[in-house]
Write a structure and sequence with these properties.
Layout lengths: L1 H15 L5 E6 L9 E7 L4 E2 L2 E2 H15 L3 H25 L7 E2 L9 E11 L2 E2 L4 E2 L2 E10 L2 E15 L10 H22 L4
Parallel strand pairs: 2-5, 2-6, 3-6
Antiparallel strand pairs: 1-10, 3-4, 6-9, 7-8, 9-10
């Protein structure tokens, strides 16, 4: 029963993002032939959040929250960093590995693999959910694949745009759950692309 639920949940996400695109902009995936595992690294270089640069967004949020309640902005910042460093990568890896018939993402902590996917988030629209009103989040990412023995050379690069959020595993009321759904959808699209191309 559990396996059936997981499969149906996975397919629901695939259908929900089928109108969206993952685009191979450079290179190819032939080098992954026969690989069973790939490492994942997550970066946030030059990221924008909404209409603001990430640093400006963060500073604004911290300042606003600290003005309302002393120390609350600092608490928010700690949670925000945890989302970026831990929660979002886990959303991505867990979803990608639901497709791991051929290729699995290694554990993100100290993983060893011949190739690495560098998932750089370039844009996050946080959205919101206040019960009577909501806005769906979305995210954009660049994914570069490099070899362990030559990490400066990009072997393949993808663009993932407008990955919708709203996690099937969360309420959608928290920033982590809303935006975490973007990483689930991005992972499902990328894994589906790998399977569709039958490179394994």
């Amino acid at each position: 029963m559990k396996k059936a639920f997981v499969f149906l949940a996975m397919m629901a996400i695939v259908v929900s993002v089928s109108a969206q695109k993952v685009k191979l902009v450079d290179g190819n995936l032939k080098f992954l032939k026969g690989q069973k595992v790939i490492k994942a690294e997550f970066t946030y270089n030059n990221m924008k959040i909404g209409k603001m640069k990430a640093d400006d967004y963060i500073n604004k949020k911290v300042s606003e929250k600290n003005k309302k309640k002393a120390g609350s902005g600092d608490i928010w910042l700690k949670k925000f960093k945890t989302d970026l460093d831990t929660a979002f990568p886990r959303y991505f890896v867990n979803m990608f590995n639901m497709f791991k018939k051929h290729l699995a993402v290694a554990d993100i902590d100290g993983a060893e693999a011949d190739y690495t996917m560098i998932i750089n988030t370039t844009f996050i629209e946080p959205g919101y959910n206040v019960g009577i009103s909501s806005k769906r989040p979305e995210a954009a990412m660049d994914v570069s694949i490099v070899a362990k023995d030559n990490p400066d050379k990009v072997l393949a690069k993808f663009e993932i745009t407008k990955a919708p959020g709203g996690s099937m595993f969360g309420s959608g009321y928290s920033f982590k759950d809303r935006v975490g759904g973007c990483y689930e959808n991005a992972a499902s699209r990328l894994a589906s692309y790998f399977l569709k191309k039958k490179i394994f």
